[in-house]
Amino acid sequence: MGRLVMKFGGTSVANVDRIRNVARHVEREVKAGNQVAVVVSAMAGTTNQLVEWCKQAAPMHDAREYDAVVATGEQITAGLLAIVLQEIGIPARSWSGWQIPIETDGVHSAARMTNINGAEILKRMEQGQVAVIAGFQGIGPDKRITTLGRGGSDTSAVAVAAALKASCDIYTDVDGVYTADPRIVTGARKLDKISYEEMLEQASLGAKVLHLRSVELAMVYNVPLQVRSSFEAPDSPNQNKPDGTGPGTIVCQEEKSMEQHVVSGIAYSRDEAKISLRKVKDKPGVSAGVFGPLAEADISVDMIVQNVSADGAVADITFTLPRKDLRKAIDVLEKLKDQIGFQDITHSADVAKVSVVGIGMRSHAGVASKMFKSLADKGINIQAITTSEIKVSVLIDEAYTELAVRALHTAYGLDKA
Amino acid sequence: MGRLVMKFGGTSVANVDRIRNVARHVEREVKAGNQVAVVVSAMAGTTNQLVEWCKQAAPMHDAREYDAVVATGEQITAGLLAIVLQEIGIPARSWSGWQIPIETDGVHSAARMTNINGAEILKRMEQGQVAVIAGFQGIGPDKRITTLGRGGSDTSAVAVAAALKASCDIYTDVDGVYTADPRIVTGARKLDKISYEEMLEQASLGAKVLHLRSVELAMVYNVPLQVRSSFEAPDSPNQNKPDGTGPGTIVCQEEKSMEQHVVSGIAYSRDEAKISLRKVKDKPGVSAGVFGPLAEADISVDMIVQNVSADGAVADITFTLPRKDLRKAIDVLEKLKDQIGFQDITHSADVAKVSVVGIGMRSHAGVASKMFKSLADKGINIQAITTSEIKVSVLIDEAYTELAVRALHTAYGLDKA
After folding, report:
1. Is residue A253 within 8 Å of residue A195, measured between CB atoms?
2. What's the pTM value of the predicted model, to 2 decimals?
3. Last residue of some domain: A219, A252, A285?
4. pLDDT number for residue A1
5. What contacts B394, CB < 8 A, 6 or more positions away?
6. B416 exposure class (CB count in 10 Å sphere: 0-12, 13-18, 19+)
7. Of A332, B94, B175, B236, which is most buried, counting CB atoms within 10 Å of its CB?
8. Do A247 and A322 belong to one domain?
9. Closest chain B C-alpha to A74 CA, distance in angstroms
10. Cα B381 to Cα B396: distance, rounded to the nearest angstrom
11. Are residues A201 and A279 in the same domain?
């Protein structure tokens, strides 16, 4: 028994029958004595249709109007789920973002929540009413509807859980967080628990399970998250247990009882590109000259490698960036060619980033060198390296992605027994 | 130049291309120097889809949730039209009912507007911004979204026009009000002007051009209405003129300059049914005994005919009611058979009501007798009659509907020259 926010994504509420399935998950938690709020996404396909209409109306359009149009998707799901819950005898009502209110800043289409007044919802939850909340939206300082950007319903759910001091179960089309993408690594194992820090690295390194901002928010407010499947039968015996474990993967603070793994998972991302500037005149301020203008153009640079020539006069600078920004970055740099002072620019979109993640790295030496050796054994060349306290990432030829992920999964002992 | 509310229904905004056409109508009025507010319906088909989802969720559902779901249709259109207007250089923003606010009573799904605060919209209209308003909706005393019931966008538009002291153009798929249904009477003529009273009778007698409540409201607040076509080219020369005439039909207060017609139109309705109670014991209170229980069951009785037997002991009572309520009415009456005291009950759904409407009747004798004679000449039997100051209605066999409408259209000199 406790207070629980349950979040269901677009595939889980794609039609009225699936919404009925969601209602049975909610019913189970209510009958177990929990006070429940549900955060829902738009029915799968709805948001795309609404976005498409906005684009047809005008390719460049007022973000405030876009928000007013697109936020309706979640409002529809919330109303329908409330109806279905009432039908099976569970008191429920729907809430739009502006009704709660979920206050946000004024950055339409990519707003950030600033305050949630959970008092009214909480009062009703204590009286047994389920709050069905339209995700992905709020109300801005201009009293107009804002949206949080795509994937934002995860973030809504965590923020509501923080405001209500509740835990948060994220229902999705996978049943948890795995040591690697199960579509690539057949021996991948589902993790029972993972720390916020590791989940954060996984999310930022390309794992699609949770939206990055939702994990950040959960970590800051210490909201226990669970990633679990909405397609498992609602009456399956494999449900949340009083000790806080459940059928999915719990994302929470690092604790002693946690499985003592050095590496918790292998992540990869194909959304990478690489740019090299050849024979850059090596003088003070050259890095700022290259990366300042890119930052101003809203391009996030990730890995950076710089090799200085034997005489120290010129350097080669190589860096990675999101593949979608490659064209824009080259345009920016070509214009600055004389100012920066380089001879040549080359680029490649055929690269991938593979990462090993684990809080155990902090206290274990040799994690990185094991990675490099495993890849070398398979003949995979490393083009760049970055490290943080709990992850090591390498850039490789994209063609070797699957091979690298499988080799590392085995090397760190993650394969199923 | 003036202040104008333009209303566009579901067919006129059925897709983004049609919304672009609507924007050009708005552009024309803005360029003519008008301050403009636009009231829009949901894109054709959208409301039906939303209603269908609610029914799938539960056949009997919470009207508050139904409203939250169904009101999204108009919000989508409002946002899209605002985007399209901005794209062609016209400042515009969308408004949901709760944002204005349009306050209503708490009768969800069939709410009545109680107050519209037009101050903010008016301020912006004076600055040149077009207000694009989601029709059919408001906010109730419970701070939840309400809807006005189907067809309510006409009523929204008139109420907004009343609040803004504006005139109101209702764009629809016909180009005005005709002397009779042009699908039946090839010689039917479009009227330039018609009085509120006549339009009200037409609307209540089966003409589908305007929603009854919208005409009532226009009459009470003296809002000049125009019914006109949204499919006429926006740049057609046939547009609103400074003298208040326009391409459609103006609905306004009766005035001397108005065409001095005795009869302005012939209306008909097939949504009728007839019930006869045979040999009712004629005693004081018998009418109340019959019609009281029907009123309690929410059944509107229209025409009533009572024939008392020669000895005055028993009567036959015949009355008409909406065809959809026939089954329910018979159930109510069968249960009260002994209490009311009648011998037999008969019914028929094969009846139609045909009406002649005209403010000229007030000062012209012989309108009704001309009607009865015209129908007799065609061999059409009259089953019941009702009259008001400005209309005469008769109940006839449904098979003769077209014949009757055409005969009357000719008899009153309404055919095109």
Report:
1. yes
2. 0.84
3. A252
4. 64
5. B353, B354, B355, B371, B372, B375, B382, B383, B384, B385
6. exposed
7. B94
8. no
9. 10
10. 6
11. no
Q: Considering only CA atoms, which of B91, B155, B76, B86 is closest in space to residue B121? A: B91
For the segment B326-340, the average pLDDT, to the nearest whole number, is 92
CATH of the domain at A380: 3.30.2130.10
Q: Would you call the peptide bond into A234 cis, given omega within 30 degrees of 0 as the criterion?
A: no
Q: What is the pLDDT of residues B173-190, one digit of tens each?
A: 888 999 999 889 999 999
A72: closest chain B residue by CA: B72
Closest among B189, B102, B117, B99 to B148, alpha carbons compared = B102
Is B143 within 8 Å of chain A by CB?
A: yes
The two three-digit tokens of residue A406, written as one number: 């499988």
Amino acid identity for residue B314 in this structure: V
Tell me the pLDDT tens digit for each residue of A153-171.
999 999 999 999 999 999 9
Q: Can you tell me whether residue B238 is helix, strand or coil?
A: coil
CA B99 to chain centre: 27
CATH number of the domain that residue B205 is part of? 3.40.1160.10
Q: What is the pLDDT of residues B197-226, one digit of tens each?
A: 999 888 877 777 888 889 989 999 999 999
Residues A122, A125: Cα–Cα separation, whole Å: 5
Tell me, yes or no, if B304 comes closer than 8 A to chain A by beta carbon: no
Q: Please give the order of strands across the beta sheet that includes A384-388.
A: A304-308, A314-322, A265-281, A344-357, A391-397, A384-388
The answer to whether residues B241 and B274 belong to one domain is no
Domain span at A349: 265-411
- Whether B235 and B333 map to the same domain: the answer is no
What's the total number of domains in chain A? 2
d(CA B68, CA B145): 6
Structure tokens at B62: 């919470």
Please indicate, yes or no, if residue B258 is contained in any of the structural domains: no
- Indicate whether B260 belongs to any domain: no
Q: Say whether B96 and A68 touch across the interface (CB within 8 A).
A: yes
Helix, strand, or coil (residue B218) = helix
CA distance B50 to B46: 6
In this complex, the residue of A62, A72, A143 whose CB is nearest that of residue B83 is: A62
**What is the β-pairing status of strands A314-322 and A265-281?**
antiparallel
Reduced DSSP (H G I as helix, E B as strand, rest coil) percent helix, strand, coil of chain A, to 5: 35, 25, 35
Q: Specify if A417 maps to a domain.
A: no
Neighbours of A197 (CB within 10 A): 22
Structure tokens at B386: 């009702």
Distances, alpha carbon B221 to alpha carbons B166, B175, B196, B217, B402, in Å? 11, 24, 11, 6, 36
Please list every residue in chain A whose beta carbon sits closer than 8 Å to the beta carbon of residue B54: 79-80, 83
B303: left (phi over 0), alpha (psi -120 to 50) or beta: beta
Q: Which of A53, A66, A94 sits opposite B68 (nearest CB)?
A: A94
